[in-house]
Design goal:
4 strands; alpha+beta
């Protein structure tokens, strides 16, 4: 399978998806670099999927 992020806006609605990554580690490294840009685009939280299976989320992009 391939890992990808699904983005949600402040209302919890689907607002987009990332590119696909062959490895979970690559997907997690990418989100670590991209979260500032995603916040600027109005993305509030993300979910990591392996194909159609939820790995984890929702995960807020805001600092605690």
């Amino acid at each position: 399978m391939a890992f990808s992020w699904r983005y949600e806006n402040q209302d919890g609605e689907l607002a987009g998806t990332s590119a696909e990554f062959a490895e979970r580690e690559a997907a997690e490294a990418w989100i670590g670099e991209a979260f500032d840009d995603l916040l600027e685009q109005g993305i509030e939280q993300v979910n990591l999927f392996d194909g159609d299976e939820l790995v984890y989320g929702p995960m807020s992009l805001r600092p605690e």
